[in-house]
Design a protein that fits this description.
By secondary structure, this protein is of the alpha/beta class. The chain has a single domain, classed as 3-Layer(aba) Sandwich (Rossmann fold). It is built from seven helices and five strands, in the order E-H-E-H-H-E-H-H-E-H-E-H. Helix 4 (about 85-95) packs antiparallel against helix 5 (about 100-115). It is globular, with a radius of gyration of 16 Å.
């Protein structure tokens, strides 16, 4: 196993409609280890359990934070890891939804800060100019742009630097991400 301080955990984030998932799938296809985001899976589970809008409940934030932590800690050590979002994204989501951070997320934010779990530069995938709605993604383009601002503010508040991945063809965006991962 690799010592934790030798693991480069990179965060890839972006608001709905940014094309983040396509970039992650290409990275995964190219052999990069990708740790899946948690919010969509929490939403899918709760909807399957009969809750049509689980994000409306304040406990949603804690559920996402718990799943993120489990995934981060259970992921096998590898020198380079790409995380689809982070607890800082969950903090941005809580603010966007008007939910409190709560003790579970606050503890996780403190842990990732004190343990320096993630690299200080975060890859922020910028908007493509449209949002495809799904059962889990019921957000307009205007709301997605506002949500992106919440991400920028949350990461800045915790001392992270957001490195933009600008709109463009998938191959160019993946190349920009890979260049950062290699740096």
């Amino acid at each position: 196993m690799t010592a934790p301080d030798l693991v480069a955990r990179h965060i890839l984030t972006g608001a709905p409609g940014s094309g983040k998932t396509a970039i992650l799938r290409q990275l995964e296809w190219d052999g990069y280890p990708v740790v899946e985001e948690a919010a969509t899976d929490v939403i899918a589970l709760r909807q399957a359990q009969g809750d049509p809008e689980p994000w409306q409940r304040p406990a949603f934030v804690a559920d996402v934070a718990r799943l993120q932590r489990r995934r981060q800690q259970a992921f096998p050590d590898h020198p380079v890891q790409v995380f689809d979002r982070s607890p800082v994204c969950t903090m941005a989501l809580a603010a966007f939804l008007g939910h409190p951070v709560g003790p579970v997320l606050a503890a996780e934010l403190d842990r990732i800060r004190t343990e320096r779990v993630y690299r200080p530069q975060v890859l922020l995938v910028r908007q493509l100019g449209f949002v495809t709605r799904t059962e889990a993604r019921r957000i307009s383009l205007a709301e997605a742009r506002r949500f992106e601002r919440f991400h920028l503010d949350a990461y800045a508040a915790l001392g992270y630097e957001c490195v933009p991945i600008d709109p463009g063809p998938l191959a160019e965006r993946v190349a920009a991400v890979k260049a950062h991962l290699a740096g």
